[in-house]
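Slide 14.
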Amino acid sequence: MGKREGGGGMQMGLGGGVEVALVCPQIAPNTGNVGRLCVATGTRLHLVRPMGFVLSDRQLRRSAMDYWPRLQLTMHDDLASFLGAMSGRRMWMTDSGGGTGLWEARFETGDVLVFGSETRGLPEGLWAGERGLRVPQVEGERCLNLSSAVAVVVYEAMRQLEAGG
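Slide 15: predicted structure.
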């Protein structure tokens, strides 16, 4: 089970009960921006080690500003422990090669929105199949910045859940 690092108990916030996971993030400011988004939407954040920075990184704290202490954060030592902790949960594995487009996905309360590192994405075996989620973009262009992609997916999930699916 992951170690909870902050925030209170599980609460239903604007995020509608979805959670976000970053697997092996490499860039501190991206993670700080995602943390800020999660605080603003009431969404729990899972961070999966190894990461390309430490949580005390000045750039992380700067991008998260004073939001970080209010973040509902769970740390996982590695991908295997994260997947074990999420056993039985419905996970959407976001990757540019995902088979389901964001507009076709139907989110549910309790879903976990999983994103890979900025440099490697997620291991292919994770995003193959019906829960592989793809953010729409112009063919041939580089992927969105990690924090931008997380924001797009979180707000689409919130929109759907607020509208009743």
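Speaker note: The two ends are 30 Å apart (CA to CA).
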